[in-house]
Task: inverse folding
């Protein structure tokens, strides 16, 4: 057996910020070297950020990524850290004829590179390209056909990228056939509620299938609608959890492993410093590496459509040393994942704001639960001094709603201003009445919402705030919002939260404050009172929508699992309710197309995951 200290850098890159991402990798290399690591692994596409979407189709961006990766290798060497092999994800080009997949040479690839002694010594590309949910990788990349195996301190380490671990066959089969001691997986795996348990079970199962330890590194942070929670981990060949990183926190996870030594090279010849034997062949008998780490001639053994390509970084095991105990960060809220969801929402809002250059946010606080939770997430993400509240009472706003909004601001310490909208609404009403188009009923109600939206965007333009839309998923699904009114904003923090989850999150946040001996941030009246848009006297949401508990149950089945009317009725839902909900959802598609992005926390949100035609007569 040989010892190996592996470091997994759970970091927060930004798409397109190649210089900033290079600094992140270099800082991780310094930290890993300081910890005495023998191998450092960073997440999928860390050089470019992830997902790059159609940036992959820009030749200039691919060229910049390739150059940045080579420069990284030189940077690490210049820092005196060149002996530490560093594995990074990056955007690369397919080299060679590419005829294997009918793609031209130079097509973009989601790639992994091994940096050592100032060079990119090996590259390969992701084999399984996900094309479901939020992923469009078949649109952006061509697949790889290599399983790379590097020998580090005498241990054979296979490298995979994200989806390659989730799919049966291919790289998994090849890794088992290669007889590796460790599988290192680079990931850009977006957060979804309940996914952490699924991920751990997958890693444990794959480790047992392959017969090797497994190290899984994931990024953290927000990227548009996606948020990554980290949750990097290491398991042994029996699936026992050895180390696990915290969620939503940048960290370096270090683990000491006892692993089997790789088989000696054929004929007893040890490979030289560049991974080649004395005869110029690599120790597995395949061809030497070209300038970018790809084989320049000949092929290694092929398993399930993949060539196993090996490269030796360091053949000699380290001298025995006292191992450290692995750190296993306990999961918070072991009986509930509500806190985990809340942290995802905070992370998503913080990074969307900061990465897009905003210094402050603006929230219309109405005294209701949605705006209260949105403002609370904003304060937790950015600090009270960067959150600006505005009260926009109308003639129908109740005293308790205004009082609840003011109480919310006092509890959390953010500044507010009040702009009554009644005079502006009256001016519109008079103008349209004079044009013989009096606004009554729903048109009159929506006018109030649109006046509010106009004022919010005016303040945003004047003062540079990012306006936060406060709508929830139940409203977005059913179209219970006013286009260009209460739906305006640059980001919608609770867009993927059913109304029932909004209440759950609010109860959790208040309970967490009490647990810490602090003032609950959300007024109890905002949580307990019946929800209302307050656009007409005595209005309640239940005037227009079913009870939220029942509504959300139907919506989750219809939106989340694509069950049609017959299936929903068969499942026990009232037929009239089902038809009503389906009609509301289908008619609101045009509104959702124009809505602000918001943090994805479910397995199926209402934008990237669910793409339906606006013009659509299919109703069952």
Result:
């Amino acid at each position: 057996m040989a010892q190996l200290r592996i470091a997994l850098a759970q970091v927060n890159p930004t798409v397109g910020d190649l210089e900033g991402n290079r600094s992140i990798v270099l800082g991780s290399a310094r930290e890993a070297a300081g910890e005495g690591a023998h191998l450092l692994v960073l997440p999928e596409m860390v050089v470019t950020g992830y997902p790059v979407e159609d940036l992959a189709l820009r030749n200039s961006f691919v060229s910049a990524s390739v150059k940045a990766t080579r420069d990284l290798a030189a940077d690490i060497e210049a820092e005196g850290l060149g002996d530490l092999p560093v594995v990074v994800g990056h955007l690369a080009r397919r080299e060679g004829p590419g005829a294997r997949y009918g793609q031209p040479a130079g097509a973009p690839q989601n790639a992994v590179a091994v940096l050592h002694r100032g060079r990119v010594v090996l590259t390969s590309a992701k084999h399984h390209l996900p094309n479901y949910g939020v992923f469009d990788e078949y649109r952006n990349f061509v697949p790889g056909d290599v399983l790379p195996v590097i020998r580090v301190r005498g241990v054979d380490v296979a490298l995979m990228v994200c989806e390659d671990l989730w799919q049966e066959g291919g790289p998994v089969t090849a890794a088992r056939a290669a007889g590796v001691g460790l599988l290192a997986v680079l990931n850009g795996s977006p957060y979804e509620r309940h996914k952490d348990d699924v991920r751990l079970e997958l890693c444990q199962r794959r480790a047992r299938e392959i017969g090797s330890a497994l190290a899984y590194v994931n990024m953290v942070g927000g990227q548009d609608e996606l948020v990554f929670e980290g949750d990097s981990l290491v398991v042994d060949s029996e699936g026992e959890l050895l180390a696990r990183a915290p969620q939503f926190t940048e960290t370096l996870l270090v683990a000491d492993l006892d692993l089997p030594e790789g088989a000696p090279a054929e004929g007893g010849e040890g490979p030289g410093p560049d991974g080649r034997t004395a005869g110029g062949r690599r120790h597995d008998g395949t061809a030497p590496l070209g300038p970018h780490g790809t084989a320049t001639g000949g092929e290694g053994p092929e398993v399930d459509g993949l060539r196993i390509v090996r490269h030796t970084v360091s053949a000699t095991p380290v001298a025995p040393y006292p191992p450290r105990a692995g750190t296993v960060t306990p999961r918070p809220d072991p009986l509930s994942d509500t806190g985990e969801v809340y942290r995802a929402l905070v992370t998503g809002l913080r990074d969307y704001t900061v990465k897009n250059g905003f210094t402050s946010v603006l929230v219309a606080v109405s005294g209701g639960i949605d705006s209260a939770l949105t403002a609370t997430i904003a304060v937790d993400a950015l600090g009270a001094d960067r959150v600006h509240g505005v009260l926009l009472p109308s003639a129908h706003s109740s005293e308790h709603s205004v009082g609840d909004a003011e109480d919310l601001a006092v509890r959390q310490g953010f500044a507010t201003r009040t702009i009554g909208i009644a005079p502006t609404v009256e001016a519109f009403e008079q103008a349209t009445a004079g044009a013989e188009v009096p606004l009554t009923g729903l048109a009159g109600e929506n006018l109030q919402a649109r006046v509010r939206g106009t004022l919010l965007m005016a303040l945003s333009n004047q003062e540079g705030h990012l306006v936060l839309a406060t709508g929830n998923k139940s409203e977005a699904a059913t179209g219970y919002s006013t286009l260009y009114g209460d739906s305006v904003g640059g980001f919608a923090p609770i867009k993927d939260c059913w109304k029932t989850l909004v209440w759950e999150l609010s109860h959790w946040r208040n309970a967490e404050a009490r647990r810490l001996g602090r003032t609950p941030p959300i007024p109890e009246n905002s949580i307990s009172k019946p929800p209302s848009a307050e656009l007409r006297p005595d209005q309640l949401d239940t005037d227009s929508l079913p009870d939220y508990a029942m509504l959300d149950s139907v919506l989750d089945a219809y939106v989340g699992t694509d069950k049609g009317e017959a299936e929903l009725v068969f499942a026990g839902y009232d037929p009239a309710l089902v038809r009503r909900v389906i009609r509301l959802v289908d008619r609101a598609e045009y509104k959702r197309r124009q809505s602000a992005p918001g943090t994805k926390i479910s397995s199926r949100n209402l934008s990237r995951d669910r793409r339906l035609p606006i013009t659509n007569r299919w109703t069952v």
In short: The longest strand covers residues 2-10. The two ends are 61 Å apart (CA to CA). Confidence is low (pLDDT under 50) at residues 267-298. Residues 441-463 form the longest helix (23 residues).
